[in-house]
């Protein structure tokens, strides 16, 4: 099972202290750990960039960069970006605001038959228009 993991989930696991997580957030982090153990957690370069952006200290940046180095980026191509633009147009046509990174995530996941693991509620709206699938923590 391959799951494209959104920035929001990686951020909970890698940028937040475990002691500051709520019970539902801990379940999300545990699910990410399980997906990693199973080899099913996937990342794209744009998500990596988002995770590494806004880090205040170079030491924290390097530590996070080293952790993320264990994960190979899923390669994207022109078709992924063109589909992302088409998806954005389709959502906007239905009155749903989009972000370019979110549309690329939807495009990559859809073209590969993957689900998206996210905490961002926007993806539910996108899914109803684009028929993308969301992954939820397993019990």
**If you average the pLDDT, what whole number results?**
96
Helical segment tally?
7
Order of helices and strands: EHHEHHEHHEHE
CATH architecture field: 3-Layer(aba) Sandwich
The tally of structural domains comes to: 1
Low-confidence stretches: none
Care to describe what's here?
By secondary structure, the chain is α/β, with parallel strands linked by helices. The protein has helices spanning 7-15, 23-38, 45-52, 58-68, 78-93, 100-112, 122-130, and strands spanning 3-5, 41-44, 73-74, 115-117, 133-134. A five-stranded parallel beta sheet has the order 3-2-1-4-5.
Summarize the structure.
It is built from seven helices and five strands; from the N terminus they run βααβααβααβαβ. By secondary structure, the chain is an alpha/beta fold. It starts with a strand and ends in a 5-residue tail after the last strand.
Topology diagram in text:
Elements: E1 3-5, H1 7-15, H2 23-38, E2 41-44, H3 45-52, H4 58-68, E3 73-74, H5 78-93, H6 100-112, E4 115-117, H7 122-130, E5 133-134
Parallel strand pairs: 1-2, 1-4, 2-3, 4-5
Features:
single chain, 139 residues, alpha/beta, Rossmann fold, 5-stranded parallel beta sheet, 7 helices, 10% strand
């Amino acid at each position: 099972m391959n799951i494209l993991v959104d920035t929001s989930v990686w951020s909970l696991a890698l940028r937040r202290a475990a002691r500051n997580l709520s019970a539902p957030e801990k379940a999300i982090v545990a699910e990410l750990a399980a997906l990693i153990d199973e080899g099913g957690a996937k990342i794209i370069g744009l998500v990596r960039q988002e995770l590494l952006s806004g880090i205040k200290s170079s030491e924290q940046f390097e530590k996070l960069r080293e952790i993320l180095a264990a994960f190979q980026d899923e390669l994207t191509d022109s078709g992924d970006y063109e589909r992302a633009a088409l998806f954005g147009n389709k959502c906007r046509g239905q009155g749903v605001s989009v972000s370019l990174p979110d549309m690329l995530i939807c495009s990559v996941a859809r073209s590969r038959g993957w689900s998206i693991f996210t905490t961002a509620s926007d993806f539910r709206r996108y899914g109803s228009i684009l028929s993308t699938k969301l992954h939820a923590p397993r019990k």
